[in-house]
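Input record, target 12 of the design panel.
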């Protein structure tokens, strides 16, 4: 069954957005909402910076996407025009924990988004 999940993932999920647990599915592998949280973190990073979280790491080290993803080798851009509040970068980092058991669940994400909106909303 886990090989089927891994094969499906390789056919349907772009490598830079595929959670670490989908690269090598084992019987101890948890495939649940936290797998989608990983992809959400990758998508948010891509919206913020225009590339996947692993583009910068791959450009500098020429490693495989799998190795960069499994080891969560994220390199944050340093361009001045690409700066976001540290709270937002930490939020994305939280979603991109390489171990699924450490990643937040959707309820945690909703609560945190509400806090970020409250903190940074100009309509206080």
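The sequence produced for target 12 reads:
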């Amino acid at each position: 069954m886990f090989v089927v999940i891994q094969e499906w993932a390789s056919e349907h999920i772009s490598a830079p957005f595929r959670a670490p647990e989908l690269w090598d599915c084992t019987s101890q592998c948890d495939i649940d909402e936290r797998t989608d949280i990983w992809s959400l973190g990758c998508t948010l990073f891509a919206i913020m910076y225009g590339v996947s979280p692993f583009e910068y790491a791959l450009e500098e080290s020429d490693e495989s996407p799998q190795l960069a993803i499994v080891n969560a080798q994220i390199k944050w851009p340093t361009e001045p025009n690409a700066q976001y509040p540290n709270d937002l970068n930490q939020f994305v980092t939280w979603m991109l924990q390489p171990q699924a058991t450490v990643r937040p669940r959707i309820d945690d994400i909703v609560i945190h988004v509400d806090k970020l909106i409250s903190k940074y909303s100009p309509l206080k």
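The helical segments are 2-12, 33-49, 55-61, 65-70, 86-95, 106-120.
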